[in-house]
Amino acid sequence: MKDLVFIINPAAGNGRGAGTWRKVKKILDRDGVQYRSFQTEYQGHAEILARQIASLGNHRLQSITGIGGDGTIHEIINGLSEYEHIHVGYIPAGSGNDIARGFKTSKKPAKALKNILKQHNKGKCRVFDGGRLSLDHFGNHRLFLNSAGIGLDAAVTAAASQLPFKNMLNKANLGYLSYAAALLHTLQSFQPCNMEAVIDGNSFQFEKVWLIAVANQPYYGGGMKIAPQAVPTDGLLHITVVKEIPKWKLLLLFVTVFTGKHTLLKEVEILTCKEIFLRSEVPLPVQADGEIAGETPVIVSVLASRMNLLT
Ligand SMILES: Nc1ncnc2c1ncn2[C@@H]1O[C@H](COP(=O)(O)OP(=O)(O)OP(=O)(O)O)[C@@H](O)[C@H]1O
């Protein structure tokens, strides 16, 4: 039998990670399944653990399963960026859980575990696309499963992570309110700017851009359907450009985006690509899978059929 490894973020979903692991561990112990488990202790720890486990692991290491939110899985896939043969399992226990939405992972721990064990025991996995965000000339990059976002959404992500009452709202299952508060706060200072893009070799100019999302699957920000047509198996990234839009209409966009109807607004342009280069007049923040990654200029490219997931 190949090694089964779990990395658990107990703090994900404001403590849901710890509770989900208790449920999963109970099933594993009851059924006499052999496994190893590691708990994260700080931000970035899942990435370090995944890399260390993979580098020390021998041919017996077949999969690493993350228990946590999108941030935890994002760290694990980045820790395994040089170990593509290792399959990644996911048991959702976060606040947003957009990976679960987009990749149709069961949110029930027992069901998600059953699916993982079924594939793990057969040595199989499901193959999906991912994305790569290149940040500079030095090879610094981040892999992502959901999307990369440039501009307002990344600025809101940064602001939301610093809100003093974020944990309280998350605990009360009102995480979307911290996003709304961060949005209102960020809107006061955020300035749209002109951007230059090269999309699969073709040049584009976008005026007064608020945000550009480059998505592998439809959801981000905890259920916002930013790219309704995105499919993580089509070999493409789906670009959503929001530009030249008045602030009041931007608020309307943030309401309609939950149903995907924002694409009907004339200020929203949808494109697809395999690779996009983006440069802005002033450096804009960039996020990947909801984690702040850096600033423009960036190149975002699809990693077609390169993500081996147990889901
Ligand atoms: N032991 C720990 N204590 C506190 N924070 C931790 C710990 N381990 C990891 N972290 C950090 O917790 C943060 C939240 O994790 P994660 O993104 O998985 O959950 P979430 O934010 O609740 O869910 P989602 O991303 O789906 O909204 C991450 O930034 C992660 O690095």
From TrEMBL:
Keywords: ATP-binding, Kinase, Lipid biosynthesis, Lipid metabolism, Nucleotide-binding, Phospholipid biosynthesis, Phospholipid metabolism, Transferase
Domain DAGKc intervals: 1-137
GO MF assignments: ATP binding; kinase activity
Biological process terms in GO annotation: phospholipid biosynthetic process
Domain of life: Bacteria
Keyword Transcription regulation attributed: no
Family the UniProt entry places it in: Belongs to the diacylglycerol/lipid kinase family.
Source species of the chain: Metabacillus lacus
PROSITE patterns on file: DAGK
Cofactor: Mg(2+)
Name assigned to this protein: YegS/Rv2252/BmrU family lipid kinase
